[in-house]
Amino acid sequence: MANILLALLLLLFIDISTSDGEDIKECATGQPPRPTIPPEYCQDVNTNESCDRLNFAIECRNPLLYPIVLARCPKTCGLCDRPGALGRCPDSHPICPQLRLFGNACQDSRIAQMCMESCNITTCLTGDKINRTTTASASLCQDRRTNCLSYAPYCNHPRYSSVLRDVCPRTCRVC
């Protein structure tokens, strides 16, 4: 319990900034930026160069192929910022790897939600809830339409953004 409290105190006093000292800016929607897989880790699982043969406009944006390209070709399809890229749920704070040193820090629901990769949580892949002895849980953000990827360029358009953010929250990065 003391370890969890210490970890939470550390989080309260940490300056949230990028590794180069630049402050993280909020999105135009007022939402904080979504976590991304660092570029050095975002690679395709390139089996026989299959990702190189993908047509971005067709295969990468096909809702039926989305789970496959997310897991195998996130770099080619520009999906490195999506939960589930390369079969991982990303951490949303740079201190997460250090929190593992506290042993049971991942038992705290706030830390588990923020440090999914470091806590080995994969709920962003399945949409399941985290089952822990505490009340930790995380849900998957879902689009309500299968064609949301085709409307992604309009997520910030003044005329369409309110509807698209409601119907396509995952694609429009609302959650």
From TrEMBL:
Q: Which cysteines are joined by disulfide bonds?
A: C106-C119, C141-C175
Membrane spanning stretches: none
In terms of superkingdom, the source organism counts as Eukaryota
Q: Which InterPro entries match?
A: ShKT_dom (IPR003582)
Q: Enumerate the spans annotated as ShKT domain.
A: 42-80, 89-124, 141-175
Query: Which stretch is the leader sequence?
Result: 1-21
Which PROSITE patterns does the entry link to? SHKT
What keywords does the record list, in alphabetical order?
Disulfide bond, Signal
Q: Which SMART domains match?
A: ShKT
- Supply the name of the protein: ShKT domain-containing protein
> Which organism is the protein's source?
Dracunculus medinensis (Guinea worm)
Q: Show the taxonomic lineage.
A: Eukaryota, Metazoa, Ecdysozoa, Nematoda, Chromadorea
